[in-house]
Specification:
The protein is an alpha/beta fold. Helix content is 42%, strand content 20%. Helix 4 runs parallel beside helix 5. The model has no long low-confidence stretch (mean pLDDT 97).
């Protein structure tokens, strides 16, 4: 795979401050396919300085012109979609169809939405005798995860650009090649030098240096809740803003009278998609007691369609594979019924985990409480709607979820769920709707106008 041995800083590819590198591994073959620079605090400082130098000019650029630049970026991403998909498959392991449709396709849609928002958002409003201005927050540190490498980059960088901010990106060390492709697209789209900068590196080194840097005004981070708390503490000490999209343990609530076959099939597909590496995945299925065994049988049947190496890709790394296997073993040890799957390796090569379904899961079990981030589904039973609600809300997380049933009853139930986003009867993902969590699932929102607002600050003038 193509890889740069330089950093993208100030509109050009520059040598890194040190000679250290990070290997990039294909999780399907376990082979190293590239190396990228291991950025240091010195690289971060250079990138932040470049962003600060570019900030005044970009902030003063008329919104219509910013919109045109973002539209040009969208067009470059669309033109390079095949290359992007192949890169995501190589470094993340996503099956080609998923890589093309979601990993390459969704970022194009999100970039397009921010091109439109940059042109139409009311950056100046009259409120009585005041004029209220929405102005860029400043320099943004975007620290992104490996599970949706390009989407998460675009979901942070595009609204920051639309708001008039300059950015420094530190991508996950497991999937840096997609970030380098994005930097190439930024350059090809003709964005001003320094408006976007890329530093590859390890989280405890480059990521921490970026979060702590005094030249950064906002840190936007997606990843684990533990790291999010650390970033929040670092940013809080400097009184700088944060946007945190963290973990999840979302509930898929099947109410009495729902189309059980559809609810189970879609629910299993949601868990298995991207090999279970989705923070908002519906990893807890809540089923009425009287239909419980029927749902378990349907879930096992649906999970069998996700064949490792075909429809189900590997996990991103050996570390992640071992972590997920450990959770499966813990589920068995704590008394859950293993319906299908298990911790054994399904293939000789690659970081694969079998699609796994647990029944007889109780809310006190580890697999019902902690984020696993793999193709593992826990099915819980409930006796009545109040117990279902208590189960749905009974975790530290609140990122996503689903409800199935008669529409009025499903909406009423969804309104009582303590979570940021709920799909009712299989509602489609909307890239314009706000995405983000309650409780330990994060602070702030991404996507659409709510995502743009994260990168703006307000000023009012009274006359």
């Amino acid at each position: 795979m193509k890889a740069h041995d330089t950093m993208y800083i100030g509109g050009e590819w520059r040598p890194a401050a040190s000679s250290g590198t990070i290997p990039v591994t294909d999780p399907a073959t376990e082979r190293v396919i590239a190396h990228v620079p291991a950025g240091t605090a010195e690289d971060v400082d250079a990138a932040v300085r470049a962003a600060r130098a570019a900030l005044p000019g970009w902030a003063a650029t008329p919104p219509a012109e910013r919109a045109a630049r973002i539209a040009a970026l969208r067009d470059v991403l669309a033109a390079r979609a095949e290359e992007i998909a192949a890169t995501v498959t190589a470094e993340l392991g996503a099956p080609p169809k998923l890589a093309a449709a979601v990993h390459a396709g969704l970022p194009v849609a999100v970039a397009g939405s921010y091109a439109e928002l940059a042109a139409t958002h009311p950056f100046v409003e009259k409120v009585g005798n005041s004029t209220v201005y929405s102005e860029p927050v400043g320099v943004v540190a975007a620290i992104t995860p490996w599970n949706y490498p390009l989407h998460q980059i675009v979901a942070k960088v595009a609204p920051a650009l639309a708001a008039g901010c300059a950015t420094v990106l530190k991508p996950a060390e497991d999937t840096p090649l997609t970030a380098q492709l994005f930097a190439e697209a930024v350059h090809e789209a003709g964005l001003p030098a320094g408006v976007f900068n890329l530093v590859t590196g390890l989280g405890p080194v480059a990521g921490q240096a970026l979060a702590e840097h005094p030249g950064v005004d906002l840190v936007s981070f997606t990843g684990s809740t533990a790291v999010g708390r650390r970033i929040g503490a670092l940013a809080g000490g400097a009184v700088k803003r944060v946007a945190l999209e963290l973990g999840g343990k979302s509930a898929n609530v099947i109410l009495p009278g729902a189309d059980l076959a559809k609810a189970v099939a879609v629910g299993v597909g949601n868990v298995m998609s991207n090999s279970g590496q989705t923070c908002s995945a519906w990893t807890r299925m809540l089923v009425p007691a009287e239909r419980y065994e029927e749902a378990v049988a349907l879930a096992a049947e649906a999970a069998a369609k996700y064949v490792p190496g075909e429809r189900l890709g590997p996990l991103v790394s050996a570390r992640q594979r071992d972590r997920v296997r450990g959770y499966i073993e813990r589920g068995v040890e704590e008394g859950a019924r293993l319906v299908t799957g298990g911790p054994e390796a399904p293939l000789e090569t690659g970081y694969y985990v079998s699609p796994t379904v647990f029944a007889d899961v109780t809310p006190d079990m580890t697999i019902a409480r902690e984020e696993i981030f793999g193709p593992v589904l826990s099915i819980l039973r409930y006796e009545d709607e109040e117990e279902a609600l208590a189960l749905a809300n009974g975790t530290d997380y609140g990122l996503g979820g689903a409800v199935w049933g008669e529409e009025e009853a499903a909406v009423a139930f969804a309104r009582r769920m303590e979570t940021g986003q709920v799909d009712v009867n299989g509602g489609r993902f909307n890239p314009l709707a706000p995405f983000g969590g309650w409780k330990s699932s994060g602070v702030g929102r991404e996507l659409g106008a709510h995502g743009l607002a994260e990168y703006l600050q307000t000023k009012s003038l009274q006359f």
